[in-house]
Amino acid sequence: MNVDLLQKSLDGRWADVRTNVREQMSRFSPADPDLSREDYRARVLELTHELARTGQPHTGFSPDHGGKGDVGGVVTAFQVLGYGDLSLLVKAGVQWGLFGGAVQVLGTSRHHDKYLRRIMDGELLGCFAMTETGHGSDVQHLRTTATYDPATQEFVIDTPEPGARKDYIGNAARDGEMAVVFAQLVTGGQTHGVHAFLVPIRVDGQPAPGVEISDCGHKAGLNGVDNGRLVFSGVRVPREALLNRFADVAEDGTYSSSIENEGRRFFTMLGTLVRGRISVAGGAGSAAQKALTLAVRYGERRRQFADPGTGRETAILDYRAHQRKLLPLLATSYALAYAQDDLVAEMHRLQKPGADHDEKAQRELESRAAGLKAIGTWHATHTIQTCREACGGAGYLSENHLPTLKADTDVFTTFEGDNTVLLQLLAKNLLGDYGKSVAGLSTVGLARFVGEQALGDVTERTGLNRLRVRRLDPRSRAAQRALIAERSEHLLGGVARRLRPALKKGADQFGIFNAAQDHLLEAARAHVDTLVFDAFAAGIKRSAPEVRPLLEKVLDLHALSVIERSRAWYLEHGRLNAGESRAVTAAVNDLCAELRPHARLLVDAFGIPEPWLACPLLEDPAAETTVANPAPAMVG
Amino acid sequence: MNVDLLQKSLDGRWADVRTNVREQMSRFSPADPDLSREDYRARVLELTHELARTGQPHTGFSPDHGGKGDVGGVVTAFQVLGYGDLSLLVKAGVQWGLFGGAVQVLGTSRHHDKYLRRIMDGELLGCFAMTETGHGSDVQHLRTTATYDPATQEFVIDTPEPGARKDYIGNAARDGEMAVVFAQLVTGGQTHGVHAFLVPIRVDGQPAPGVEISDCGHKAGLNGVDNGRLVFSGVRVPREALLNRFADVAEDGTYSSSIENEGRRFFTMLGTLVRGRISVAGGAGSAAQKALTLAVRYGERRRQFADPGTGRETAILDYRAHQRKLLPLLATSYALAYAQDDLVAEMHRLQKPGADHDEKAQRELESRAAGLKAIGTWHATHTIQTCREACGGAGYLSENHLPTLKADTDVFTTFEGDNTVLLQLLAKNLLGDYGKSVAGLSTVGLARFVGEQALGDVTERTGLNRLRVRRLDPRSRAAQRALIAERSEHLLGGVARRLRPALKKGADQFGIFNAAQDHLLEAARAHVDTLVFDAFAAGIKRSAPEVRPLLEKVLDLHALSVIERSRAWYLEHGRLNAGESRAVTAAVNDLCAELRPHARLLVDAFGIPEPWLACPLLEDPAAETTVANPAPAMVG
After folding, report:
1. According to the CATH classification, is domain B1-267 in 3.40.190.10?
2. ipTM value for the complex
3. Which of B268, B487, B195, B507 lies closest to A634 in space, CA to CA?
4. How far is A114 from chain B (nearest CA, A)?
5. From A148, A369, B48, B220, which residue has the greatest number of CB atoms within 10 Å?
6. Is B96 in contact with B54 (CB distance < 8 Å)?
7. Beta strand A126-129 pairing with A178-187
8. What is the pTM of this model?
9. Which residue numbers delimit the Acyl-CoA oxidase/dehydrogenase middle domain (chains A, B) (predicted)?
10. By the CB < 8 Å criterion, does A54 face chain B?
């Protein structure tokens, strides 16, 4: 099997970008874990400037201002940085993705002409000041105000209460000169909701007048990024500081917007920022791949306990328990890689220069991004933890990369949208679609629909699905697809039924929603399972024929792990009987054994530059010898 | 409800010790996370000496040498230290538990008289040098040698190969003067297996001649502990350096031991060290309790998204998804606390001065310790991670303790016995018992036994247990007990059947074992589930009548979470039908809602000293206000 062909399949649509960044990355060697926080920040700032000099950050910006307009390319490049120093990844993400991205997509030419070039080159460093101490998930209700003063034609930025302090803001504590500040726009005594403003926060290295900056201090990881807090007291910025692509304030204070509805306007503004979530999902994927590469290579060389038959110590990856720890996660990492590539391609299609605005497709993209970000970052946290444990004490030493990977990625599950909140967002959007499809049915059709649902319930209550006669073949792609997709649809239908009473006047909306919240989250997860499955299957079809048989097996393992994880649900709903459920587990075991010989190839195909992997964990001589008096296999 | 009565119940048998240590602990304030590694090590060394001055470490040592012989007390005290700086906990554990403990239990009066006093007082700092780079789990096959030279009446300690280097050794990199070194004892050309030797490793702060010391460097956490590596080249120690409680070498090199069988001798020596595992389980429990206390208190005060009915923002702990994240873990933390107290009491009974040696009870204690250490440390890792995420960005800041808790405890799952290996050890011991009970049956009895097993299989294959007629009441304590215990017995019986062919001559022992490994691990986990359930139930019976009703609910939640987690198994084996399985999930939801109002009380009863909890996460003013234009509940 040719590792290059496999890597080509994984590298996907932006393979060239990946190759470039892999070559550049060798210059960005890992940081010494003993660096002080200040020194680490200084180092990451230096690397950020170095990255700017490669021209890579230009890729994503508009060609009108010296960029390449390659939206997909820049997100893919970001993803490859995820094999390296994640502080650099996040600092770069703040500077070019969040700060620069907001100026690009929320601003207009007056901002672009003035700032984009300097932002791309890293001359003007900035922050994305959205989150407040009191409002992280519910950004629609953040409290910072930007009040228009027609007398001076300025906005006055204020932090009206302690909870309105901007918090966790990257680039704020040390390096940022400017911030895109999200605030409630007030003019003529009226509030028009959250808008973004360009606010200078530092002048000659000192906080700008009226801006109070403090440091978030030491964090679990990412200590090369200077997260800080911003408090504003009567900070005046010109009227033109408003990023006015979607709304503007005239000199006399008159407010105008191309989007009438305040909520819709808010979500349209937020939607343009979807790139951040997609990038985080990509970075998480890279980190998980790196952890798996380390753990698989260690698992192949590390031997412990002698086989009583041969007296030879067994490579730990030959133990079933070890395979079950690592190989399903490896399979899912493959699946997520294809899903991520699809997501990036769709984002590129919608957001590349000159693309028509397609609101429906954009909304769909946001849903997918929310779902994949949640599932992908949880997968990364779980995978890196598992890999750390799979490497024992060696996995706890910083020299072996896993501690840093773990600490740096931990925040991915809660920043750029808390995962739980993102899954709810996805479910909400899905329910919107679902509601529409139900609403489109005639009365008869609706009655039949409800009838079918009721039948489904009865089937479940019997504990057996009597409609299904054929016995499950766990390796049948169609059967896997049907099981995964059916679960998603059923969960969604069920939650729609449970939420319907909330539409009644006077209903306890919160109570009804809250009682179904776990169901709602499951429905969202199941939806992501389906789209990840489909993306992997489609990716295999695009791959070279030589690598397809192996990839099919990897997809089998991924799909059956997903089904196995939810097999209680399939049993409860009569989709699997007891024997079939156990056959799924047996198939997962078999697939682990079948893929074991290919494990090294599968991780090599991630194409992680060797200098970034090198560590004593991989270098130490295997301590293998033949044992004269082997322990009984039982404790093996 | 009185928090003191609840705390009294949790504090258990060594409540007085806990009170003392809680009072002392206020002096051991948390470390600055920005401390350099060297400064942090110096600080922890200082705290170690301060701890010695409290006299607390004396508690566990023999009264003959100035100790109090309170074995249970010292382990409980250690547990309370787990609320504080975990580097101090581990440094103290290495010094007094592992190093001092080995001298106490593996040595004889010649060692006790010479060293114990100085060890207790922290004047003589030492290491426990067991693990080698090449052998961590399989310590029976470690490679360091101690070769007796009758000419000089010395043992010569050698590291014969790179893999035999002692690794991850606490106290080695900086502070330790002496080490208990585990090595293969060779005399007269014959190897007698692993024995422990007292070896000076540092003289006047410099490595002793022939000893090469290196530093493990920066770690994921516990950077206040100086873990290092030791390589020995012809290091000579007197014959008396052998810790000779179980075996000795005469002047002429003749080897003798009170335990003939080498394997049994090895496991007897290891068994005396069970205290380390019990202590780790206790420390992990404290860390999980601390994380839960932070997350529950934050969840009560943190509000996000407005209830559309009231316009008031909802406390995040009022969301079902948030309750489901935290409250089952809180319930399990209660269950584990009672199981831990039982385990400590049993250890105390067996190991207190003057106790008769009861080999069977000792073996049983080791099994329980292995199981509880594995389950308890995994619970801690999972709980702390969940609590970190439940606190969002605030949970990622070091000032809020969660990052340190997470990083410091991460290694608990793989040190003092890798959890997977420990569960296998437990399963092996259980199978030994199981084999004995089967072997004791007459031929007729055996046939009936096999017949019953076969019947069980048939029952499972039908997917329905036709023998059971009554419908499950999820809140029935007897039903919960039956489900949990039955699963454990069934899994164990199944794995015994699968392993039986390995006893045949010429069988592929490794292959048979390996194919059943995941089954074996499940059986071990299920066994621990049973004993934890029983311990909690018994603990409630010992509690004040006023607190029992609340504790019963907590046990309900714990038990049903355990059953829910394994409900696929119950469905596959016909122990639950679909409706009953869903009733279990519904009951977990209901119990979360019922316990929600008591969540704060439940965490307060852990009695964690307030100065150790204090952090901005708990102090910030709640950013609650009434929202004029609430978001729809759906995104809540």
Report:
1. no
2. 0.93
3. B507
4. 33
5. A369
6. no
7. parallel
8. 0.94
9. 127-235
10. no
